[in-house]
UniProtKB/TrEMBL annotation:
Keywords: ATP-binding, Cytoplasm, Kinase, Magnesium, Metal-binding, Nucleotide metabolism, Nucleotide-binding, Phosphoprotein, Transferase
Subunit-structure text: Homotetramer.
Stretches assigned to the Nucleoside diphosphate kinase-like domain: 1-138
Stated role: Major role in the synthesis of nucleoside triphosphates other than ATP. The ATP gamma phosphate is transferred to the NDP beta phosphate via a ping-pong mechanism, using a phosphorylated active-site intermediate. (Microbial infection) Catalyzes the phosphorylation of dZDP to dZTP, when the bacterium is infected by a phage that produces the substrate for the synthesis of dZTP (2- amino-2'-deoxyadenosine 5'-triphosphate), which is then used by the phage as a DNA polymerase substrate.
PANTHER family linked to this entry: NUCLEOSIDE DIPHOSPHATE KINASE
Enzyme Commission (EC) number: 2.7.4.6
Stored PROSITE patterns: NDPK_LIKE
Organism for this UniProt entry: Cohnella luojiensis
Gene: ndk
Coarse class of the protein's main subcellular location: cytoplasm
Name of this protein: Nucleoside diphosphate kinase
Entry binding sites for ATP: 9, 57, 85, 91, 102, 112
Highest taxon above the source species: Bacteria
Cofactor: Mg(2+)
């Protein structure tokens, strides 16, 4: 079992796409174990995007992610990291496969609706930035046996 950190970015919240996006992960069969609408402080944004420090889009990325509320989530399931990245699609909407979130709803690389952890280790690191363990809910899904 693996956990991943997913975050609907300010564009997704402002465009009213929270329900649409959350529904895709629910229907896939992953288990939602934590969620909250929140503003991201500059300090949290810098920790989250530390790997991009120094890149030409870094400052813009920080401004964007702190510009309005995000919908922060933790999802659990077998291969949750890889499966979530597959549902999200490539960073650039032009390269994202049809049927992925970014292909279906995004136009611009900078406004690509959702973040998904790119590795198991980064998932655990990012969950720690945005959630305390007390905010995460442990429960069984009745139909999990078929997924
Ligand atoms: P994310 O971290 O948000 O899930 O996206 P990702 O893994 O697909 O892409 P990543 O390389 O981690 O980049 C993080 C975010 O920075 C913006 N970006 N802009 N060339 C560019 O202008 C550029 N490259 C990346 C995107 O918003 C990307 O999601
Ligand atoms: Mg990334």
């Amino acid at each position: 079992m693996e956990r991943t950190y997913l975050m609907i970015k300010p564009d997704g919240v402002q465009r009213g796409l929270i329900g649409e996006i959350v529904g895709r992960f629910e229907r896939k069969g992953l288990k939602l174990i934590g969620a909250k609408l929140m503003n991201v402080s500059l300090e949290r944004a810098e920790r989250h995007y530390a790997e991009h420090k120094g890149k030409d889009f870094y400052e813009m990325l920080l401004r964007f992610i702190t510009s309005g509320p995000v919908f922060a989530m933790v999802w659990e399931g077998d291969q949750a990291v890889g499966l979530s990245r597959a549902l999200i699609g490539k960073t650039n909407a032009l390269e994202a496969a049809p049927g992925t979130i970014r292909s279906d709803f995004a136009i611009h690389t900078n406004y690509n609706l959702i973040h998904g952890s790119d590795s198991h280790d980064n998932a655990e690191r990012e969950i720690g930035i945005f959630f305390s363990e007390e905010e995460l809910v442990s429960y069984d899904k009745a139909i999990q046996v078929w997924i």
